[in-house]
Specification:
Layout lengths: L3 E10 L2 E11 L4 E5 L6 H9 L6 E6 L2 E2 L10 E4 L11 H10 L7 H14 L15 H13 L5 E5 L7 H15 L11 E6 L2 H7 L2 E6 L2 E6 L1 H6 L4 H6 L6 E10 L2 E6 L5 E3 L10 E6 L4 E4 L10 E13 L2 E8 L2 E8 H4 L7 E6 L5 E4 L8
Helix pairs in contact: 2-3, 2-4
Bound molecules: adenosine-5'-triphosphate.
Length: about 375
């Protein structure tokens, strides 16, 4: 196991700045997910840790040691990149066994067998060990590539989108397996292994990570536990990165009223008391409301205590299995919520409906794409 510290990493490729001042620490035994959209700098960060890309500035320390002058092969890291290179002339077993039989490692054959079969079973490829690589589907190849990483004794695993080519069902099974592996339940070695896991899938990050680093345009926006990034996103971009349907973001300003500060939408149609915020009345802000924090309020009664009722019309209904995403138009604002199918069944487009918002569950960000939480 190992602690991995990144401090002030910068990297440019010609005119492209891939990383700007990237700093975070992955603790011993921690499962750390680096989450961000395409081109954010996730792979470049991982390659700097691995020693495959030399940063222009900043430091990578493994267990407190600056590894700038340490060759990739001497960093004791096991890596799996999205473009998995397997030996087509070998079968699955020999592909997985190859790192263990390398001149540097040369494990006894009995241990090689034991490690390969344990990991193969875990990844559900134990039935394929005799097959040639050329006879495998892309998803099976990806699992073999991941298996080849997990069989190795290593201080840390660096995994770059290792489930990207699997179908939804297999991804979800494999997520559970990886979670078990990260706890040390099934790897070739006992104990938790430090892991940096790159993904652009927020579900994967929330379900796997001890902590998540959100990266965009080569900059780390937030590092936190899944609960922290979900409940207290530092800006509107991070807020929008987690959750489906995505957080509702309404544009408006803060207005001082007799009973406190309120958010008022640009068109005046939405007015909601704000939780205590660190911003002045008059400031242009965005109100974030997660769809799951909004409920329908059908009928004419008063809202329950602590809730604000907003009136609008049904704009669109989208069925998602047992639930339905209902988007309600309030003036010029659209607010989505998730309702049970049975409730949504009675609704039609343009129906007048009320929705309930609990102001304590709302988020306030300054205006702008990366408007900071206030
Ligand atoms: P993806 O999810 O699409 O793999 P990513 O977050 O891993 O994206 P990187 O591959 O780290 O992003 O790339 C970050 C930026 O650096 C991108 O703009 C990319 O085009 C650029 N880049 C990466 N590697 C190179 C390279 N070898 N030469 C030139 N530009 C590069």
């Amino acid at each position: 196991m190992a602690t991995i510290e990144l401090e002030g990493l910068t990297k440019r490729f010609g005119k492209v700045t891939a990383l700007t001042d990237v700093s975070f620490t992955v603790n011993d035994g921690e499962f750390f997910c680096l989450l961000g959209p395409s081109g954010a700098g996730k792979t470049t960060t991982l390659k700097c840790v691995a020693g495959l890309v030399e940063p222009d500035g900043g430091t990578v320390r493994i267990d407190g040691v600056d590894v700038a002058d340490v060759e990739p092969t001497h960093r004791h890291l096991a890596m799996c990149f999205e473009s998995y290179a397997l030996y087509p002339q070998y079968n699955v077993f020999d592909n997985m066994a190859s790192p263990l039989r390398s001149p540097r490692m040369r494990l006894p054959e009995a241990e090689v067998r034991q490690r390969v079969s344990r990991v193969a079973e875990l990844l559900g490829i134990d039935q394929l060990l005799d097959r040639s690589i050329t006879q495998l589907s892309n998803g099976q190849r990806q699992r073999v590539a991941l298996g080849r990483v997990l069989v190795r004794p290593a201080h840390a695993y660096l995994l770059d989108e290792p489930l990207a080519h699997l179908d939804a069902k297999l991804r979800s099974t494999m997520r559970a397996e990886l979670k078990a592996i990260s706890r040390g339940d099934g790897t070739a070695d006992a104990g938790r292994t430090t892991t940096i896991y790159v993904t652009h899938d927020y579900v994967e990050a929330l379900s796997l990570a001890d902590r998540i680093g959100v990266i965009r345009h080569g900059r780390i926006l937030q590092v936190g536990t899944p609960t922290e990034v979900w409940a207290k996103p530092v800006n509107a971009f991070v807020a929008l990165a987690f959750g489906k349907p995505r957080m509702n973001i309404l544009q408006g300003t803060l207005v001082a009223r007799d009973d406190g500060v309120r958010f008022v939408s640009r068109d005046g149609a939405v007015e909601v008391p704000t939780p205590a915020v660190d911003a002045q009345p008059g400031e242009a802000v965005q109100l974030g409301i997660r769809p799951r924090d909004v409920t329908l309020h059908l009928g004419a009664g008063d809202p329950p205590p602590g809730r604000v009722r907003l009136d609008g019309v049904v704009y669109v209904l989208e069925h998602l299995g047992r639930q339905t995403e209902v988007t309600v138009q309030i003036g010029e604002n659209l607010v989505s919520l998730v309702a049970s199918r049975s409730v949504a069944r009675s609704l039609r487009q343009d129906d007048k409906v009320g929705i309930l918002v609990d102001p304590t569950t709302t988020h306030v960000f300054l205006a702008g794409d990366e408007g900071k939480r206030v």
